Structures are given as C-alpha cells and as structure tokens.
Amino acid sequence: MKIITKGERLQVPVAATIGMFDGVHVGHRSVLAFLQSEAARRGLASAAITFRRHPQAVLHPESGFSLLMTLEAKLEALAETGIDYAIVLDFDKQLSELSAREFIRLIRDTYGVRLLLVGYDHRFGHNRSETLADYVAYGHELGVEVVQTPELDTPLGHVSSSVIRRLVAEGNVELAARMLTRPYRLEGTVVGGFKNGRKLGFPTANIALADRSLLLPKNGVYAVRVHVGGATYGGMLNVGVRPTFDGSGKVSVEVNIFDFDSDIYGSPIAVDFVAHVRDERRMESLDELTKQLAADKKQIQEILKTNLHI
C-alpha cells in the first residue's frame, strides 16, 4: 500500500471510499473488500481516503474527542486489507466548508477518483442533508461513478467506531475486540512510577501513553497481553486513580507483567486488553490490597489460558 499525503497527486484512475476508519473494524474491512471487488471489475486501483485528525476533534476541540488508534496504527491496519493506496487528508476549516460536489471534484482532479463508494449511512460535504441521489447526480455531472455499499449484517449487531468507543469506555473490551478483529491496544513508554506495587510483591510498569488522544478503558483491573523487549507476556493492568494510595485523582496506567524481572525504564511497550476483571475500588488496608491483587492475578492467569484468540 502506498500512502499519499498533502501535496501529492495520483496519476492512476482509482476507486475510492471515504472515512475516518478509526479502528479499521469488521465493518470497515467489509467495505474495503467490496471496494477492491468493484475496483477489480473496472480495472481500477483501490484507495481509502482518510483524515489525519478526526473532524470532530477539529471542529469541536472542546469535546475532548478520543480515538481508537493512532494514525500510524490505522495505516498499518489499512495496509493489511490489501488496498493499493491510503490518501491522508488534513481536515481543516477549508475542507470542512466544501460542498459534496466540490469535494467530488477535488478528489477526481487530485487523486484520479473515477468510482466513489459511499457508505449506506455516510454523509460528506458541508450540507449533510444531501442524499445518495444528490451524490450520484454530482458524480454523473463530474464523470465519477457513485456506488453505495451494502449494509453489513453481522452476528455482533451494528458495528461502528462509535459503538466500539462506547464499549471500550464501558470496559467491555472483549466485545470490542471481536468488532475490531483484534484486541484493543494502548502503546507508550515505561516511565518511573510510585513503586508501591513492588513493596507489595506486584511490581508495575507505569506507562506514559504515546498519544493522549487515545481512548482509555474505564477505570479498573484488566487481563492484558504485554509486548515489550521483543517478547509477549501475560499481565495485570490497572487503569485508575490508585485510591488506596493516592487521593490526587490523576489517572495512571500501570501493568504488572507476569514472569518478568527486567529493567525496562524508557522502553516502548504495548498492551492488548483481553478482559475486564473488576472495577477499581479503595481497599481498607495494604494487607487487603495485597490479598485482592493475588486473587486478581490468579483469575487473570486463568483468563489468559483460555483466551488464546479473540
């Protein structure tokens, strides 16, 4: 897959679809498979048109909008689908003010779009009241064939990035993983922490997230798989405010890595969320906390034994 960014043009005729593709979930993959099929029928290359930043984050920065994955992770996932091009646009005020007709002309002239695949519930352009019939009419005028994607019917129910964000925010990382076709992942760097876990016999790696715009699962304890130093380990991760130790209210992400005892300060680390184990709560004593952590670890080890796949 070749990545096309601002200032670059495409000289080959392409079939394209537009979207944020946040998560590159099962619904996105279905659309991209359909796109590739339609492109092959017409002898066109395939392209996904996406955005560097989510339109919501640009138009409503006060909303604190969170994403499921970084741009780099998204491009890697898009490449896995086998499409030929990813066209990354910078969503800004000027782009947001284009009409659907103007946008179709832009992608025709700049990126060689000859077929535009439109999601069954997708709207684009400044006037969101326009319909598929309007898009088809604009395309006919501009020499771009506009085709609607079929609605995806899955045993998981309605699949969308917003549904998955809600699931992750609720701690339902298992269903989210099924919709994503992989576990929800956070990446970052190991930094110095409070070292309270080590005193209790459960040393933790404190993770400084690589991108603060990523969505944190709800506060609680999770079974995770940890990728660090070129290897993968089981782990017990806590998202929360450490209520037994700290009343600051500052959220931290800390993971106890099983069967591991190496100095990894400053190392990159990634955690895949397998299951939510319990909500975070304040313990009445350190002894109670130690016993709870031991019980959590035992439960998580069993979970990881039986959850070998999504």
Outline the structure in words:
The structure is a single chain. This protein is α/β, with parallel strands linked by helices and 310 residues long. The strands form 2 sheets. The chain has a 6-stranded parallel beta sheet with strand order 1-4-3-2-5-6, sandwiched between helices. It has a 6-stranded antiparallel barrel with strand order 7-8-11-10-9-12. The longest helix has 21 residues. The protein is elongated and about 75 Å long. The mean pLDDT is 89.
Question: What topology emerges from the helices and strands here?
Answer:
Elements: E1 2-4, E2 14-18, H1 26-42, E3 45-51, H2 55-59, H3 71-80, E4 85-89, H4 93-96, H5 100-111, E5 113-118, H6 132-142, E6 145-148, H7 161-170, H8 173-180, E7 184-191, H9 196-199, E8 205-209, E9 220-228, E10 231-240, E11 252-257, E12 268-278, H10 286-306
Parallel strand pairs: 1-4, 2-3, 2-5, 3-4, 5-6
Antiparallel strand pairs: 7-8, 7-12, 8-11, 9-10, 9-12, 10-11
Helix pairs in contact: 5-6, 7-8
What features would you highlight for this structure?
single chain; 310 residues; alpha/beta; 6-stranded parallel beta sheet; 6-stranded antiparallel barrel; 10 helices; elongated
